[in-house]
Amino acid sequence: MDLVNPRAMLEQARQGGYAVGAFNIHNLETLQAVVAAAVAAGAPVILQATPGTVKYAGADYLVAMARVAARQAAVPVVLHLDHAIDIDLIGTCLEAGFTSVMFDGSTLPLEENITRTRQVVAMAREKGAAVEAELGRLGGREDELAVDAEAVYYTDPDEAATFAAATGIDSLAVAIGTAHGVYRGEPRLDFERLQEIAARVNLPLVLHGASGLPDTAVARCIALGISKINIATDLKLVLAARLRETLAANPEETDPRRYFTPAREAVKETALAKMRLCGAAGRVQT
């Protein structure tokens, strides 16, 4: 099948009490690894590209690779633009064929965030794509996005309900104590806040910054209403570690096919484990 809109996929996860894994990819090898994991798991999957990855690889290249993978896979595959601030870039990705986009207006005042998010929703509807937005602000670093601890604030449940109703978004990313990048200590998540948001917002909820979280915390977030789990750093760490290991053992190796093959397999195994943790494995009947 071709790339799909994730709206139905995420609603099924919400109703079924599991989450769909959303994995940041950066090149051919990481894209292949994540899709191969989804096929092995029998799980729906979301491929994510940050604005930095779009600038690095090109929107058309990413769509072409993702479409080939989706057409060869027996599971539904989404291509999603993650944490975009530039509306022109969102338009470029929608024109290229992304089936989902995220407008990150979390640094904006609420009313301005609503206005711009509604603009993106209108753009996406014309292309048959879904929209994710964010309310609240996560700390840490993700691609070109960096937020200091002082700038972090959690999602307000009442504002979340107002925002969801006013914008017409398909999913909402919430801030409950997770962070992008590598954690410097064990994160403390506000599960009560998450439960309150889920009770007020009739939409799939998204957890960013899931890399490095204890499995028990991820499972509890899903039980409380999270339907999409974002994984980026965990994949980058295992990819880099396996590349270093392979090249250290074979310092004269110059063939990228030989050192990327074990790295790709390591990414696949990590993604597969996350899909099982999310409860998404076996959800696709092939």
Structure description:
With 286 residues, this protein is α/β, with parallel strands linked by helices. Helices cover 50% and strands 17% of the residues. The strands form 2 sheets. An 8-stranded parallel β-barrel has the order 1-2-3-4-5-8-10-11, surrounded by 10 helices. Strand 4, helix 6 and strand 5 form a beta-alpha-beta unit. Helix 2 packs parallel to helix 4. It is globular.
Number of helices: 11
> Uncertain runs with pLDDT below 50, 5 residues or more?
146-151
Secondary-structure-derived class: alpha/beta
Largest sheet, in brief, is: 8 strands, parallel, barrel
Distance between the termini: 12 Å
Features:
globular, alpha/beta, single chain, 286 residues, TIM Barrel
Tell me briefly what this model is.
With 286 residues, the chain is an alpha/beta fold.
Please render the helix and strand layout as text.
Elements (H helix, E strand, L loop, with lengths): L6 H10 L3 E5 L3 H14 L3 E5 L1 H7 L1 H14 L4 E8 L2 H10 L3 E4 L6 H17 L3 E6 L3 E4 L2 E3 L9 H11 L3 E4 L4 E2 L10 H10 L4 E3 L7 H9 L2 E6 L1 H17 L6 H23 L8
Parallel strand pairs: 1-2, 1-11, 2-3, 3-4, 4-5, 5-8, 6-9, 8-10, 10-11
Antiparallel strand pairs: 6-7
Helix pairs in contact: 2-4, 2-11, 5-6, 6-7, 7-8, 10-11
